[in-house]
Sequence to fold (453 residues):
Amino acid sequence: MLRRHVVRGRGRLVKSYRKELWFEVPTRRAFINITSKVEACLKESNIKEGLVLVNAMHITASVFVNDDESGLHHDFEVWLEKLAPHGPVKQYRHNVGEDNADAHLKRQVMGREVVVAVTEGKFDFGPWEQIFYGEFDGRRRKRVLVKIIGE
Amino acid sequence: MLRRHVVRGRGRLVKSYRKELWFEVPTRRAFINITSKVEACLKESNIKEGLVLVNAMHITASVFVNDDESGLHHDFEVWLEKLAPHGPVKQYRHNVGEDNADAHLKRQVMGREVVVAVTEGKFDFGPWEQIFYGEFDGRRRKRVLVKIIGE
Amino acid sequence: MLRRHVVRGRGRLVKSYRKELWFEVPTRRAFINITSKVEACLKESNIKEGLVLVNAMHITASVFVNDDESGLHHDFEVWLEKLAPHGPVKQYRHNVGEDNADAHLKRQVMGREVVVAVTEGKFDFGPWEQIFYGEFDGRRRKRVLVKIIGE
Fold:
């Protein structure tokens, strides 16, 4: 059981941790549950109280927290394609020698990053919170950054 | 008056604080100003310089910063219902035994979390910034996490 | 070359830094690359490992990370105007004596803030990441907050 609230009386020295997670999604778009990979980083960091920043290092991808349910991921895909369709490719001025303008837009809806609290050495998550990598322009190697600050 | 910029020369020990705020919204959707509740946490923490993370612990709710104006909240409601309509419920594959797929989508538009700077013991806010809990699938007890890191 | 992962063994004292960046955009809407301004703050802070929070202090503006490409910025403008049109102004209840309800909505899509990792004294960015101020209701002086926490 987590304590309902915690105030550290004396304070501690601050520590930091950094790791890159690499992905190569074979399709243009996909959602990948990266919670266990980020948990492994947290364990390796040995940080007990603090904040974890998890962000896409590419501007056509997202990191977000939502439900690990395949039906919902299908709904996200259909919904994002309606809000920011991939084609016709020529509707976007960005698509000069590229065809990924929609990926830049979709990433804004889903977000670049999440900041997750660390309490007593664990993610301070609600019952269904899971961390996802959202790829909107895959078929190449891309990275996610995990940065942890705390004590 | 806040100092225009502050560089702490010597550094201090880091402290952390955690609290859950509970809500039971009687309707499916609502926006609740939680600024004063988060301010009470900050005061209790006794942290003077740092960052406050405020996040929904449920994946069908949001925490965001915007204006405390009822007309705008009505506009948000109408706009979100246009971007990600609740019904017909069967349009979403997530809705097998559930009817809240739209709440998962709406929460992506409005965001999971805010990170707010703490300066001289107060939220470092512009003139109209207020913190809101956005409920998109209420009628049950749900939580918001407040985590504060700093010195 | 950044080290692939870093765990600080002993820990350090935490420091904080704060600065406001001011903008007066002559048009209603614009995207401004503020990366170099935030980099100057980071250099001034002398913080080597930590987190930078960059947030709009106004609720009709955004701070976000994306590509510094004018075609894409045009696409953002067209897309946001489709998702949350400025007019007709009367479609929004917020517009009583104001005409900026759409700016409050656009800011939710683009986001209030970014949190950027600091590693070895630099932004821990992927190849194309740049920080932008997104103005949706300009023609007056408005602020962005830079808050840095770390060691």
Chain B touches chain A at residues 12-20, 41, 44-46, 51, 53, 55-59, 83-84, 92-96, 101, 104-105, 107-109, 111-113, 115, 143, 145, 147, 149, 151 (CB under 8 Å). Residues 1-9 of chain B have pLDDT under 50 and may be disordered. Residues 70-83 of chain B form the longest helix (14 residues). The first strand of chain B starts at residue 5 and ends at 7.
